[in-house]
Design goal:
Blueprint (H helix, E strand, L loop, with lengths): L1 E13 L5 H6 L1 E12 L1 H6 L8 H12 L6 H15 L5 E9 L9 E7 L1
Length: 117
């Protein structure tokens, strides 16, 4: 029984960007992760050992967000690679990284990059 699991609007303060100021001052970011996995064993057993641990997924995102990068594509790619390495049972994975209030010379709510793996 395949299921879609979504971790939505995880909030981080990080230092990603191409401008020196961004890597010094930092900015607010939001991360969304969704994945498809076999939920049959967990739905039958009610045991965490039979599921993908959401806390562990969150901690992977947190760890990767703490590493400075110039590009959101690089951050999202690292998150995907790390999750796939630790959870090979995930069949499909999507990671969206959003920079809130990006410095684009005008008003913008956010800019986002979404990668699938």
């Amino acid at each position: 029984m395949n299921g879609l699991i979504e971790l939505e609007e995880m909030s981080f303060y990080a230092y990603h960007g191409c401008f020196k100021e961004e890597q010094v001052v930092g900015n607010k970011f939001a991360v969304n992760i969704s994945f498809i996995t076999n939920c049959g064993p967990a739905s039958a057993s009610d045991h965490l050992a039979d599921a993908v641990n959401y806390v562990h997924i969150y901690n992977i995102a947190k760890r990767e967000m703490a590493i400075k990068s110039h590009l959101l594509e690089h951050v999202a790619g690292r998150i995907i690679t790390a999750i796939q390495k630790e959870f090979p049972q995930i069949m499909s994975l999507k990671v969206k990284v959003s920079k809130l209030n990006p410095p684009v010379g005008g008003q913008m709510k956010q800019v986002s990059v979404t990668l699938e793996g």
